[in-house]
């Protein structure tokens, strides 16, 4: 279930900044038609930091409703307060979500022992499968492989999304955690290399606007057809890079709007619309990647 091309889904907002559920339904259909392997709903790309708790829960549940069992939905449940992450995990227990993606606490910079106790407490509060999420560039804390190995001993902690772009960690984590521990890339630019090192898939920003290409690329890679996968990846590389020309999800929401995937490219403050100087950069990357609807 947790392999291949999974999308870190954007949360569409209308002009007033409210959740646009019609666009959300369209996005779910787009990913089902494209062959995306799973949807991560209200992860950090989904602007979890600026949705209210009520909005957060409703967006995940609506995504489940629109999916109608046709594609697995993983709920973003991360928070920098352990009790809040536990609350989200409990709220989604029994709803039909396939699992939870839980980012390392941000800003408060816990120690490795603090990270262990944080994720342990969350896992013990629910039976839902837990995927750890390590993204030091956004959180200012690094979940080290040795700590991951301690956490992997907990039955329902089943994998990690690693956005460090450190490919040496794939082998290190496999040695410490075993072959069954799921390793997912959180970095599109190195995602295919991550698979070559033994990873299982990617939770992707690029898949928001190039879903079919990403799904095909990872199907090829995981079936051993790496040369064909590399061809697709080389075409998508400008997009992998330029979707981060400004803070994610600013560029990808602009791109999704330009492609007609969502009605508006609205973000919530403190994020603002893609700058005029960056717009042609992202537009050129879409063109180079041959991403069209």
Highlighted features:
293 residues; alpha/beta; TIM Barrel; eight-stranded parallel β-barrel
- State the helical fraction: 40-55%
Q: Give the SSE order as H and E letters.
A: EHEHEHEHEHHEHEHEHHHH
Which percent range describes the beta-strand content?
5-15%
Determine the CATH topology: TIM Barrel
* Overall tally of structural domains: 1
Main beta-sheet strand count, sense and barrel state? 8 strands, parallel, barrel
Number of strands: 8
How many H/I helical runs?
12
Distance between the first and last residues' Cα: 27 Å
Query: Runs with pLDDT <50, length 5+?
Result: none
Protein name: 4-hydroxy-tetrahydrodipicolinate synthase
Subcellular location: Cytoplasm
Site (L-lysine inhibitor binding): 49, 80, 84, 106
Pfam families: DHDPS
Provide a compact summary of the structure.
By secondary structure, the chain is α/β, with parallel strands linked by helices. It has helices at 21-34, 53-67, 82-92, 112-124, 136-139, 145-151, 168-177, 191-196, 211-222, 226-242, 250-258, 279-288, and strands at 4-8, 38-41, 73-76, 99-103, 130-134, 157-162, 182-185, 201-204.
Spell out the blueprint of helices and strands:
Layout: E1 4-8, H1 21-34, E2 38-41, H2 53-67, E3 73-76, H3 82-92, E4 99-103, H4 112-124, E5 130-134, H5 136-139, H6 145-151, E6 157-162, H7 168-177, E7 182-185, H8 191-196, E8 201-204, H9 211-222, H10 226-242, H11 250-258, H12 279-288
Parallel strand pairs: 1-2, 1-8, 2-3, 3-4, 4-5, 5-6, 6-7, 7-8
Helix pairs in contact: 1-2, 1-9, 3-4, 4-6, 6-7, 9-10, 10-12
């Amino acid at each position: 279930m947790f392999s291949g091309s999974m999308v870190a889904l954007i949360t569409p907002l209308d002009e007033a900044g409210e959740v646009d559920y019609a666009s959300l339904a369209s996005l779910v259909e787009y990913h089902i038609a494209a062959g995306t392997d799973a949807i991560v709903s209200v992860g950090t790309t989904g602007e979890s930091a600026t949705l209210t708790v009520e909005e957060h829960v409703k967006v995940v549940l609506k995504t489940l409703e629109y999916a109608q069992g046709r594609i697995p939905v993983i709920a973003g449940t991360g928070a920098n307060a352990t009790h809040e992450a536990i609350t989200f995990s409990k709220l989604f227990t029994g709803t039909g979500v396939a699992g939870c993606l839980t980012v390392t606490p941000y800003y408060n910079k816990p120690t490795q022992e603090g990270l262990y106790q944080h994720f342990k407490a969350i896992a013990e509060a629910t039976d839902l499968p837990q995927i750890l999420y390590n993204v030091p560039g956004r959180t200012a804390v690094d979940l080290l492989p040795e700590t991951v190995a301690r956490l992997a001993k907990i039955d329902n902690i089943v994998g990690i999304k690693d956005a460090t772009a450190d490919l040496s960690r794939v082998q290190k984590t496999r040695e410490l955690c075993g072959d069954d521990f799921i390793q997912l890339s959180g970095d599109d630019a190195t995602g295919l290399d991550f698979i070559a090192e033994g990873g299982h898939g990617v939770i992707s920003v690029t898949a928001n606007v190039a879903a079919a290409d990403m799904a095909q690329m990872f199907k090829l890679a995981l079936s051993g057809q790496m040369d064909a996968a590399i061809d697709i990846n080389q075409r998508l590389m400008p997009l992998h890079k330029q979707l981060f020309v400004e803070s994610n999800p600013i560029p990808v929401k602009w791109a999704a709007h330009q492609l007609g995937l969502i009605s508006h490219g609205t973000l919530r403050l403190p994020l603002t619309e893609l700058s005029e100087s960056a717009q042609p950069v992202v537009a050129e990357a879409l063109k180079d990647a041959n991403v069209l609807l």
